[in-house]
Design a protein that fits this description.
MetI-like fold; about 80% helix; about 220 residues; mainly alpha
Length: about 220
Amino acid sequence: MSMLTPLWISLRLAGTTTIILLLIGTPLAWWLSRTRTCFKSLIESIVALPLVLPPTVLGFYLLIVLGSGGWIGHAWQQLTGSSLVFTFKGLVIGSVIYSFPFVIQPLQNAFESMDQRPLELAATLRASKWDRFLTVILPLSRRGFLSAIVLGFTHTLGEFGVVLMIGGNIPGKTQVVSISVFDYVEQLQYHQANVLSFGLLVFSFVVLLTVFSANRFYQKKGI
C-alpha cells in the first residue's frame, strides 16, 4: 500500500471534521459568548472535557457507545444495516468530539472580545441576522475563525488514540498517518516512518507560521 493512502485518509478526515465542527461550533460558541444561564459553566466543562481526558479513555467510551451494543451504534445499525465502528464515519464522529474544544474555544473568545457597537448599528439599520453575521460578525472575528480552522484541522490530523480505538488499523479504510507511522516503527522501517513524520512536521510548521504571520498582519492593520 502506498504511503500516500494514509495521508489522504488523514487529510480527508481532518477536512471533513473541521467543516462539521465549524457548522456546529459557530452557533454554539456564539450562544456561549452571549448567554447568562446558570448552566453555562456546565456546558463549557463538557465542551472542554476532551482537553483533559486521555484519548484512549475517550476512545474507549466512544467505542462502547458507537458499537453494536451502544444506543447510537445499535440505532445506526438498525437504520442502515452497517456498523459505525471501524469505519470512516466512526472516525469522523470520534474526531468531531475529540477536536470540539479546539474549535469552540477560539470562536467563543473571538465573539466575547468583539466590539458590540457595529452590531448595534447594523441592528438599527434593520440588517437581518444573516446579514449581520456576514458583514459584521465574520469580519470582526476572522482571527478567531482562522485559529479555529487551523487548530481543528491540525489536531485532527495528528490524532492517534481516539482513531485507533474507534477505527482500528484497517489499511486503506481507517489507517491514518499517525497509526501508519507507529506501524512502520514497530516493523523497524524507520525510513518510511521518517518520511511520513517529516512531512507532517513540515506541514504543521508551515501552517502555524501562516497563522502567526496572519495574526501579526491583522494586529498591525488593526483588523
